[in-house]
Design goal:
The complex is a heterodimer.
Chain A lengths: L5 E4 L7 E4 L4 E4 L6 E4 L10 H10 L7 H4 L5 E7 L13 H16 L3 E7 L8 H16 L4 E3 L8 E6 L5 E5 H4 L3 E8 L7 H7 L3 H4 L5 H5 L11 H16 L2 E8 L9 H4 L7 H16 L2 H9 L7 E7 L1 H16 E4 L3 E7 L14 H12 L3 E2 L4 E10 L12 H13 L3 H13 L2 H9 L7 H8 L1 H6 L2 E5 L3 H7 L2 E3 L2 H12 L5 E4 L6 E4 L1
Parallel strand pairs in A: 4-19, 5-6, 5-10, 6-7, 10-11, 13-20, 14-16, 14-19, 15-20, 16-17, 17-18
Antiparallel strand pairs in A: 1-4, 2-3, 8-9, 11-12
Helix pairs in contact in A: 1-3, 3-4, 6-9, 14-18, 16-18
Chain B lengths: L1 H9 L32 H21 L2 E3 L1 H5 L6 E4 L6 H8 L2 H5 L1 E6 H4 L3 H11 L1 E4 L5 H13 L3 E4 L17 H9 L3 E7 L1 H4 L13 E4 L11 H16 L11 H17 L1
Helix pairs in contact in B: 2-4, 8-9, 9-11
The chains are: A alpha/beta, B alpha/beta.
Chain lengths: 525, 274
C-alpha cells in the first residue's frame, strides 16, 4: 500500500524541490517555512484487469448485464474518450482497449452485425490513425477502421441531431449514429474528477451548439471548482444535458480509473519525493537537466512526447451513469486527495510539458494559461489553495510558439483577441461566435488535425476563475513579451518572483508549492 | 559567412519534398544486368522452394487470402500480362500467392528500377525471391518495353503495376500507357487484377506487415482491338481494374466485421499458443 499524500514544511534539511518547467525540469530552493504538497503514491493496480472488466460488464450497477442487452439485428454504437486522456498517453495496452475488446467480443457472440465505434473527440482535434490504433489496439483497428471506426465530427450538419432543450434552455445535440442506435455504450477513462459521468456523452459527442451551453465564463466562475463536480455549475449543466440524452437513447456506461504512475522507469525521479531520491535518481535528474538545457526545443519535445505512462487500472464499473460515476469518483478521490490545512498567500506551480490539448504539439502561451491557471489551479476541493487576492507563481518558458496544424485558431486568438482585451467575459461577448463559425477553422477542424475555432476561448475561460480569484500572476523563466501579452508579470528567478509577490500580499507571505505531476486534489480545510 | 548562411538556408536536404520535385532526375543504374540467372536453374527451383514453403504459407496465414477469378488465368495457355492496382509492397507476394502454382512459377514481376535496383544486393534478393526484373519508371521506356516484350515472347507471364507507384491513400491512380503498348507489341492478353486490403497489411511507409484480410480478384482477359491505341487500351484495363474493386459497398472490407474479428482472434490464439 502506497503512502497517502503529504504536506511537508521546508526546513534546513529539506532537499531542493523538483519543479517542472515546460519541456524541462529545474530544482528550486523554497524559503524556509514554505509548504510542499505531495500527491499520494500510486495505488496498487488491479492484478487482472481483463477479469475485473468482465466482472463489471456481467454485474453492472443498476442495469442488466451487457450480454443481455445485445441481440442480433440491433444497432450498437460504442463511443470512447479521445487522446486528451490520460496524460501522458498510456503504455500499451490502453485500458480502453481492454474494455472495448471485451464489449466487441460480446457483440460478436451475440451476432450484432451493425456495430460502429466513435471517438468522442468533441471539439478537440481528430485523432490520427496511429493514435486510434494505440488506444483501441491492433485487433479492433484491423477489424473496424476506417468504415466502422471513426472520429466524431461536430461540424457535420448531417451527422449531428438536436436531441432537445433542457429546462434551463440548454440545447443538446448528439452524434446522429449514436442518437439513432438501439444501444449506446460509452467507455470512459477518468483521470481527474472533472472527467466522466454525464459530461462524457453531453460533451464528447456534442457539437458547438451544445458545448457552448456550459463552456461559458459565467458557468466556470460558478464552478468552485470544476474538479469537484458537486460544486461545479459546469457539471450541473452537463448533468441536465446528459439526462436528456439518457431519455432519448438507451445508454450503458463503462468507467475506468487509473493510478498516478505517470512516468516510465527512465524518468522515475519525477514520480518520487525528493527525500526519496537515490543516487541513481540524482544522476537521472542531472542527465535530463543537462540535456534539456542544451537540446533544441524540437528534440526535447520529441523526447518528452514519446514517453508512455505505465498506468495501472484501479477501478472499473459499468451500468447506469449516476451510480457508476459515483463509484468512479470515489476511486479517483482515493488516489488524488490530499488534506491541506488552510489557504496560503502564494502558490507555486511548475507547468509541465503536456496538457490535454497539446499531445504531440508544443504548449503555446494560451495553453500554458489553461494548464497553469485552469487545470492545475483548480485541483482543489472546498477552497483554492491560495487565498482570495493571493499570488500564483508559474514556472514555464512560455515562448511564442504555436503548432500551426493543431492550433491555428490559437494563433489568431493570441495575436488579435488578447491584444485587444484579456477579460474573459468581454472576449466571450465580442469574439467567440466569430471564431466558432469561421469557415476556415471549421474546414481545418473537419479535414485536418486542428482544434475547433472556438477552442482557444474555452482554454482561456478555464482560467477565468483563477484570474478573478488571484491578485497577481507571475511567470518564472517566461519570455518577457509573451508573459506581458498574457497580462502577467515576468520574473527570472523564484526569489525575484517572491519579491514581486510581496508587493501584492505583503511581507513574509505564506508559500505553498504544489508538487505535480503526478496529479493531486487538494482538500483545503 | 553571409554566403554560407544563404547556402545553408537555400537547400533543404531530406524531409518532405514538394510534389514537383524532379524525381525524373534520379539516376537509374547505368548497367542493368539482364538477370538471366534469376530465370535459370538452379535459381528457379530454389525460388519455387522458397515460395512454396515460406512465402505462400506466410501470406495465407497473415491475410486469410481470398481469391476470385483464378480460372481466367488457368484458361490461358500462352503468356499474359497481369495488371493490378498497387497500394503496398505486400501486393507482389500476395498476388503471386493468389496465382495458380503453374502460373506463379512462370511469372516475372516488373519492379521499379530506381527503387529496388539502386542497391545491387537488394535487386538480387528480390529477383531471387519474387523473380523481378528492373522496370524503369522514368526515361529509357523503349528499352524496358523491348526487354519486357522479349520476356513475354519467351513464354513468361508479366505482373505489372501500371499506376507506376504505390497509392498513398488507397485510391487508385491513372494507368500509364506502357501496359497497352506492351500488350499490342507482344500481342498478349491483359488480365486485370485488383488487390484489396493490403493498405492495412503494410501501408506505404510501414516496414513490417500486420495481419489483415486481403481479397484478390482476377478479371476476364482483355485484348487490344485492331484500331485501339495503346493509351485507349490502357484506359480500358484501368476501368476493368476499377470495376473489380467495386464489388462491395465497403471497398476495403471482406465479409462482416464479425468474420474479421473471429479471424483475427483465431490468429491471435495461434500466435499465443506458439
Amino acid at each position: 500500500m502506497g503512502r497517502p499524500g503529504a504536506v511537508i514544511e521546508v526546513d534546513r534539511t529539506t532537499p531542493p524541490t523538483l519543479v517542472h518547467f515546460g519541456e524541462g525540469v529545474r530544482l528550486e530552493r523554497l524559503p524556509l517555512g514554505s509548504r510542499i504538497v505531495y500527491p499520494p503514491d500510486p495505488l496498487p493496480p488491479i492484478p487482472h484487469p481483463e477479469r475485473a472488466i468482465r466482472r463489471a460488464l456481467a454485474h453492472p450497477l443498476e442495469d442488466d448485464p451487457l450480454r443481455e442487452l445485445l441481440r442480433p439485428g440491433m444497432r450498437l454504437t460504442i463511443a470512447f474518450d479521445d487522446l486528451s486522456l490520460p496524460l501522458p498517453p498510456m503504455a500499451r495496452p490502453d485500458v480502453r482497449q481492454l474494455v472495448l475488446e471485451e464489449i466487441v467480443e460480446m457483440a460478436a457472440e451475440a451476432g450484432v452485425e451493425d456495430l460502429e465505434l466513435i471517438v468522442a473527440n468533441s471539439l478537440h482535434r481528430r485523432m490520427t490513425e496511429d493514435e486510434i490504433r494505440h488506444v483501441v489496439g491492433d485487433r479492433i483497428f484491423q477489424t473496424f477502421y476506417p468504415e466502422r471506426l471513426r472520429n466524431h465530427d461536430a461540424e457535420d450538419p448531417d451527422q449531428n441531431v438536436l436531441v432537445g432543450t433542457t429546462a434551463a434552455g440548454e440545447e443538446v445535440t448528439l452524434n446522429r449514429r449514436a442518437a439513432e442506435s438501439d444501444l449506446l455504450v460509452y467507455v470512459n477513462l477518468t483521470l481527474v474528477p472533472m472527467d466522466g459521468g454525464h459530461k462524457s456523452l453531453a460533451t464528447g459527442l456534442g457539437s458547438y451548439r451544445s458545448v457552448r451551453a456550459h463552456h461559458t465564463v459565467s458557468t466556470l466562475l460558478h464552478s468552485r471548482s470544476y474538479m469537484n463536480p458537486p460544486d461545479s455549475a459546469l457539471h450541473a449543466s452537463c448533468i441536465r444535458q446528459g439526462q436528456l440524452i439518457e431519455d432519448a437513447v438507451r445508454c450503458f456506461h463503462v468507467e475506468t480509473s487509473v493510478n498516478t504512475h505517470c512516468f516510465p522507469a527512465i524518468a522515475n525521479f519525477m514520480q518520487k519525493r525528493e527525500t526519496d531520491w537515490s543516487a541513481a535518481d540524482q544522476a537521472a535528474f542531472l542527465a535530463v537537466k543537462q540535456l534539456t538545457d542544451i537540446a533544441p526545443p524540437d528534440v526535447k519535445r520529441a523526447a518528452f512526447h514519446s514517453m508512455r505512462a505505465p498506468y495501472g487500472l484501479t477501478a472499473v464499473h459499468a451500468g447506469q451513469v449516476d451510480e457508476v460515476h459515483e463509484r468512479t469518483l470515489e476511486a479517483v478521490r482515493r488516489q488524488l486527495l490530499v488534506q491541506v490545512d488552510g489557504q496560503t498567500d502564494v502558490v507555486t506551480i511548475g507547468v509541465p510539458y503536456l496538457g490535454p490539448y497539446n499531445v504531440d504539439a508544443c504548449m503555446n502561451p494560451v495553453l500554458v494559461v489553461c494548464m497553469g491557471l485552469g487545470y492545475l489551479f483548480n485541483l482543489y476541493r472546498g477552497r483554492p489553495v491560495v487565498r482570495q487576492g493571493g499570488v500564483a507563481i508559474l514556472f514555464h518558458p512560455c515562448r511564442y510558439e504555436f503548432d500551426a496544424v493543431q492550433h491555428p485558431s490559437y494563433i489568431d486568438f493570441y495575436d488579435e483577441v488578447l491584444a485587444d482585451t484579456r477579460d474573459p467575459a468581454e472576449i466571450e461577448a465580442r469574439y467567440e461566435r466569430c471564431f466558432a463559425e469561421d469557415p476556415w477553422y471549421r474546414q481545418l477542424y473537419r479535414t485536418s488535425y486542428a482544434y475547433h475555432g472556438v477552442h482557444p476561448f474555452y482554454a482561456w475561460y478555464w482560467a477565468a476563475h483563477a484570474l478573478q480569484h488571484l491578485g497577481d500572476v507571475i511567470v518564472v523563466g517566461g519570455q518577457r513579451e509573451v508573459v506581458h501579452h498574457l497580462g502577467f508579470k515576468c520574473a527570472s528567478t523564484l526569489q525575484d518572483a517572491l519579491e514581486m509577490a510581496e508587493q501584492t500580499v505583503g511581507r513574509y507571505p505564506s508559500i505553498t508549492h504544489l508538487h505535480l505531476p503526478p496529479l493531486l486534489l487538494a482538500d483545503v480545510q | 559567412m553571409r554566403d554560407l548562411e544563404a547556402v545553408r538556408r537555400g537547400w533543404r536536404w531530406g524531409g518532405v519534398r514538394p510534389a514537383s520535385w524532379p524525381e525524373a532526375a534520379q539516376p537509374v543504374p547505368e548497367r542493368e544486368s539482364s538477370l538471366e540467372w534469376a530465370r535459370a536453374e538452379p535459381v528457379r527451383s530454389l525460388r519455387w522452394l522458397v515460395q512454396r514453403c515460406l512465402s505462400v504459407p506466410f501470406v495465407r496465414a497473415m491475410t486469410h487470402l481470398r481469391v476470385e477469378g483464378q480460372e481466367w488465368v488457368q484458361s490461358l495457355d500462352g503468356p499474359v500480362i497481369v495488371a493490378s492496382n498497387h497500394t503496398s509492397h505486400a501486393d507482389t507476394p500476395i498476388l503471386l500467392a493468389a496465382l495458380p502454382e503453374r502460373a506463379r512459377e512462370r511469372t516475372v514481376v516488373g519492379a521499379a528500377a530506381d527503387y529496388w535496383y539502386r542497391r545491387p544486393w537488394l535487386g538480387r534478393l528480390v529477383s531471387l525471391w519474387l523473380n523481378t526484373f528492373p522496370f524503369a519508371r522514368t526515361g529509357g521506356a523503349q528499352g524496358v518495353l523491348h526487354s519486357s516484350s522479349h520476356l513475354l515472347r519467351s513464354g513468361w507471364h508479366l505482373l505489372l503495376y501500371p499506376e507506376g507507384t504505390r497509392s498513398p491513400d488507397g485510391r487508385m491512380g491513372a494507368f500509364l500507357p506502357g501496359v497497352g503498348h506492351l500488350a499490342r507489341e507482344a500481342r498478349v492478353p491483359v488480365i486485370p487484377a485488383h488487390v484489396r486490403g493490403t493498405r492495412r497489411v503494410m501501408p506505404k511507409g510501414r516496414g513490417v506487415p500486420l495481419p489483415g484480410p486481403v481479397d484478390v480478384r482476377f478479371g476476364r482477359p482483355l485484348r487490344p482491338g485492331p484500331e485501339e491505341t495503346s493509351r485507349a487500351f490502357s484506359q480500358r484495363v484501368e476501368r476493368a481494374v476499377r470495376e473489380l474493386g467495386q464489388g462491395s459497398r465497403e471497398p476495403e472490407v471482406i465479409g462482416s466485421w464479425i468474420e474479421r474479428w473471429r479471424a483475427t482472434g483465431e490468429r491471435r490464439r495461434r500466435v499465443a499458443r506458439s
